[in-house]
Amino acid sequence: AKSIDDNGFLFKANMAWDVSQHSMVYATFSQGYRHAGANAVPTSGKYGENPALFTFDSDKNDNFELGYKGTSGKMAFAVSGFYTDWKNPQLNTATSNWGFFAAINAESARTTGLEAELSGSLTDSLSYNLSYTYVDAKLTADVYQPAGNYYGGPVYTDRVAANGDRLPGTAQNVLSASLQHE
Fold it and tell me: What CA–CA distance (Å, rounded) separates 64 from 132?
């Protein structure tokens, strides 16, 4: 049986400068982490999958963000740009033989983007919120998963995503608008 041993430190640093009494510029560096784990995939018997799918490794990312935010009258605003460098990102897949859900690790990915938000009051009882996000989230290496017939036949890898493919579950553009009446 394979054991998983994970430890380490994560860092976060933030600097801010008040441009005026009602606005500020900020910069943030932070690190993210997801723990390693095991997939609930049979690795022997009639429905046995490649034993390499039994576990997946932790992933870690370095995040950089630069932004400007503040208020003006009854309006609040924020705009920021961000960059994330991701090592061993965990991706969801289906096993090659029987289609069981499994997490695998890719080699690397990166995310860059911009966010903008505007909110405020139109009247004493009516407020609004507008936001837009642009995200360019891509794999920076081909992704292979353990595959093949594990019944004594050949075991090989399948390329399941290519360098430059969009990260699963990430929208490139998100626009949101709301009105609230109280």
Answer: 19
